[in-house]
Protein: Glutamine--fructose-6-phosphate aminotransferase [isomerizing]
Amino acid sequence: EKGGYDHFMLKEIFEQPRSIADSMRGRVNSEEGTLQLGGLSDYMDKLAEAKRIIIVGCGTSWHAGLVAEYVFEELARIPVEVEYASEFRYRNPIINPDDFVIAISQSGETADTLAAIQLAKSKGATIFGVCNVVGSSIARETHAGAYTHAGPEIGVASTKAFTAQVTVLTQMAIAIAHKRGSITEELYQQLLLDLSAIPQKVGQVLKAADRIKEIAYIFTYARNFIYLGRGLNFPVALEGALKLKEISYIHAEGYPAAEMKHGPIALIDEDMPVVFIATKDSSYEKIVSNIQEVKARKGRVIAIVTEGDELIPNMVDFVIEVPETHDILIPLLSSIPLQLLSYYVAVMRGRNVDQPRNLAKSVTVE
Ligand code: F6R
Structure:
């Protein structure tokens, strides 16, 4: 049942070339240059006119929402707010009938997310679901949606569900941007091509597993970890830290790299591992200076970099390469090494990776 892998989590990490492809199947056709999300087709005209999108979710699904915020705003130029479902539902939020709410949930059963949907629905908003479990409560409660098609996820720590969520949300953003005319036809075609290439590139990242295992071994001693990224890699940093906490029980925090100097930099010493997600994108130069700041204080740096980067490997202790892609698709590649890193650290610490203490796969109570 684990297909030869030691744990479901590892099997699910390695399934990602396929699960991401499944999340695009019948939707993206890069040869014909088309993208269609069947579940949303009745709403595309309305969505193209949207004044605001509110995204709700919890945990990893909330992180996927943060990635989507960057992608929607960048491509579709629609303002997006991302909310923890638990905070949203109790805050007397301002919701208008012309708002669109996207609820993200792997299980489709998360109590807070379900309640947030019901609240927004009662105010007249239109609700879309991005769920993995077909026929789940959230899928049934929403007006429309797009399933992630990642297949069943058994490991409690979400891996392939996260990348499938990002894949679906990115497709939504591209489709809406195209409909609105906020991206050129040329960029639209390019994004479809780049999306189609992602599964194969994820396969390439997975080839680094043995090297990541060696790095994990070196850091098994650590009691704390810091994850830093900017732009789209900021939510990736949050997700990397969450993954490590959940399954290895090592305290980890994710921050936008520029927030370092506003406090967390005080934590840096020669024992502190700092994971930088430092791929070649528009914030590359800024993150290079953030790495210098950490190295100047003797932090031990692991950097996720773009293949062929010649600068960062000379500055840091360890590098893991990911292939190049369009900036907005980077999280689909840069999140993978972090999944593997937490997996191997947890295994080396003898943790119950698939069933971490105190956690449930679906949180049906608030
Ligand atoms: C993290 C994790 C949780 C879930 C959260 C929401 O690995 O699995 O943080 O992401 O409980 O669950 P869903 O997506 O089922 O609503």
User: Anything to note?
Assistant: The pocket of fructose -6-phosphate is lined by residues 58-61, 105-107, 110, 113, 157-158, 242, 246, 362-363 (CB under 6 Å).
